[in-house]
Design a protein that fits this description.
single chain, alpha+beta, Uridine Diphospho-n-acetylenolpyruvylglucosamine Reductase, domain 3, Vanillyl-alcohol Oxidase, Chain A, domain 3, eight-stranded antiparallel sheet, binds adenosine-5'-diphosphate
Length: 545
């Protein structure tokens, strides 16, 4: 048989015998239909972004067999999700919900505990349940991607409503939002823009949050809070429930938009640039989650391998990056680029753009790039589409930087200040130099804070490259924490470490999280270890890494 058909011995969740597990799966097949319960016994196939696997992390930073599912189940309704949860409680089997599993760079579809049964919600629960052109809201199931939502809005002729999309648009709107992902329109803070959840709790009960708790309410998607404690928060970046429906608010079409790009020549311009950005961003003259990116990413965004520019070992030298930027890119050489967008009709944009221009040009050598000079496949136009709420996948091109390219992110948050930007830049640069890795820093400026997103691109078939990437990440997390910086989100493998940095008052927050976990999930079946939260049954037994 060819390798692609050969069977692997399926992984069995810890604490259950193989025969018992086989019996349990057969029972679930009886409930959901045999075709909706798949044993993971085929060779692991990586595919690519649009045809990604749901059995493991296709961008694994550990050995590929480390974080794999024992089986994947496909519930078709909230009731079937309840059945899966009750089944998991009966057999004490860990289950791991995913919406679409395109959370690449943070673990993809992989479960935190090896041998968990992955609950792939997106395959069959992929409906837009409501699209409301009067309230500018929608209600989606886990399998609705940014592309699907965008296309549905166009198909209905609702051009007065925009969606907000992250850098790559193939992921789940719901999954991205509950993992607190961001996009680049004024609605870029996805979590802040959601309104209402339906959640299956680890014991099998179903709740609706906010106004969804009031039978017959017509404000579930327009008033997020309802009455009493605001419970939505505990279902984001956690393992307290399986979200089966989510309300999302949509942005009104602003009546015009215009992308702009400025470049700044020197590495030292970063600090002064941040001081200029902060007041403009907080006062909404800079209106969207903008990006400040290093020129090395302009090379990587060409989609060509690093070997085209440099065949030596260690980080690519700065002179080579600058020379290649001059010869190979339409924008030419610089060190930092700011990508932003102005919204509204031309006369409104003109006022804001003039203010931005005057401020940015206080930095010597600052240059406004004329978009008319840029070819259609320039990275600028990908940023233009994304900031206008049009899903895109151009961003994936930089994964070609190394053979078998995979990526994993380090993403600390800080205020928008010169001191913080330069401290984090220096920290990242030192760590990357130490491990001989090219450094790709991008600052995503929220409103009062920025996420520094550093994607490490590595060859996933090269054990030494994987190890170097992981060691570099671990160093950066610890060094950042020592300076008072924490990550906004992290990869499965780093969740314990990152959770450990949020340790104020003898780890009081984690103790609280654990109390919630034990109360809501007494058998510890739902996504054990996700975000560093371990149920009682696992705690102190060596599961952390
Ligand atoms: P995307 O395809 O948008 O990247 P994922 O499905 O990978 O989203 O979701 C990101 C992470 O959020 C998952 O790894 C999972 O841990 C968690 N998650 C996703 N969907 C749900 C859900 N419906 N209920 C609970 N947790 C979820």
């Amino acid at each position: 048989k060819p390798a692609s058909e050969r069977q692997r011995l399926p992984v069995v969740p810890q604490g259950i015998e193989r025969d018992e597990f086989t019996k349990a799966l057969a029972e679930l097949q009886g409930q959901l239909g045999a075709e909706h319960v798949e044993i993971n016994d085929k060779p692991l196939k990586d595919g690519w972004y649009m045809e990604h696997p749901n059995t493991h992390d296709m961008m694994t930073i550990l050995d590929e067999e480390e974080l794999v599912a024992s089986a994947v189940v496909y519930p078709g309704s909230t009731e079937e999700v309840q059945q899966v949860v009750l089944w998991a409680n009966k057999y004490r089997i860990p289950i791991f919900p995913i919406s679409m599993g395109r959370n690449l760079g943070y673990g993809g579809a992989a479960p935190r505990v090896r041998g968990s049964v992955t609950v792939d919600l997106g395959r069959r629960m992929n409906q837009i349940l409501d699209l409301n052109p009067e309230d500018y809201t929608c209600l989606v199931e886990p399998g609705v991607s940014f592309y699907a939502l965008y296309e549905a809005i166009q198909a209905k002729g609702y051009g007065h409503m925009w969606i907000d999309t992250p850098d790559v648009g193939g992921g789940s709107v719901l999954g991205n939002t509950i993992d607190r992902g961001v996009g680049y329109t004024p609605y870029g803070d996805h979590w802040a823009c959601h309104a209402g959840l339906e959640v299956v709790l680890p014991t099998g009960d179903v709740i609706r949050t906010g106004m969804g708790a009031l039978p017959g309410s017509n404000t579930w998607q327009t008033f997020p809070y309802g009455f009493g404690p605001y419970s939505d928060g505990i279902f984001s970046q956690s393992n307290y429930g399986i979200v089966t429906k989510m309300g999302m608010t949509l942005m009104p079409n602003p009546g015009g938009y215009e992308s702009f790009m400025y470049t700044f020549p020197k590495e030292e311009d970063l600090g002064p640039l941040m001081e200029i950005i902060r007041p403009l961003r907080i006062s909404n003259i800079l209106e969207n989650v903008a990006q400040v990116r290093h020129v090395i990413q302009a090379l990587a965004a060409l989609g060509q391998p690093r070997s085209k520019f440099f065949t030596g070992s260690g980080p690519i030298p700065a002179e080579i990056v600058h020379t290649a930027a001059t010869t190979a890119t339409a924008v030419g050489d610089y060190t930092w680029a700011y990508y932003g967008m102005a919204y509204g009709p031309a006369h409104i944009r003109a006022h804001k753009l003039a203010l931005v221009d005057a401020e940015f040009k206080r930095i010597p050598g600052a240059r406004r790039v004329d978009p008319a000079t840029l070819p259609a496949d320039e990275y600028f136009w990908a940023r233009d589409r994304i900031a206008a709420g049009v899903p895109d996948i151009h961003e994936l091109r930089w994964v070609n930087w190394t053979p078998n390219g995979a990526h994993v992110a380090f993403s600390p948050v800080s205020p928008i200040r010169a001191a913080d930007a330069t401290a984090l830049f220096a920290l990242g640069k030192r760590a990357h130099d130490r491990y001989g890795i090219d450094f790709f820093p991008a600052f995503c400026v929220g409103l009062r804070e920025m996420h520094l997103i550093v994607e490490i691109v590595f060859d996933r078939d090269d054990g030494a490259a994987r190890r170097a990437a992981l060691d570099c990440l671990r160093d950066m997390v610890d060094e950042a924490a020592a300076l008072g910086y924490g990550e906004y989100r992290t990869h499965l493998v780093l969740m314990d470490q990152v959770a450990g940095t949020y340790s104020w008052n003898d780890g009081a927050l984690m103790k609280f999280n654990e109390r919630l976990k034990d109360a809501l999930d007494p058998n510890g079946i739902l996504a054990p270890g996700r975000c560093g939260i371990w149920p009682k049954r696992y705690r102190g037994r060596g599961w952390e890494m």
